[in-house]
Amino acid sequence: MLTMCRKCTMAGAVLLLLLGAIFLSVDLGVWNFFGINWWTALFLVIGVVFLLKEQCDSCCDLRPKTKKKK
Length: 70
Fold this sequence. Notes:
By secondary structure, this protein is mainly alpha-helical.
């Protein structure tokens, strides 16, 4: 299950909003964004969000504790 703190959720939302604005400007012909596909950029954003989540102490505290087998 994906559990993230408010800070990481906001960072992911901002990245997705920026990505959407970039590709909207490409669709409108305002800016040519190096010719990459939208799904490539989406996978990059997802990767960055997961990296942020793994490094965040607040997100690590929200994770359910698992029992270790002996």
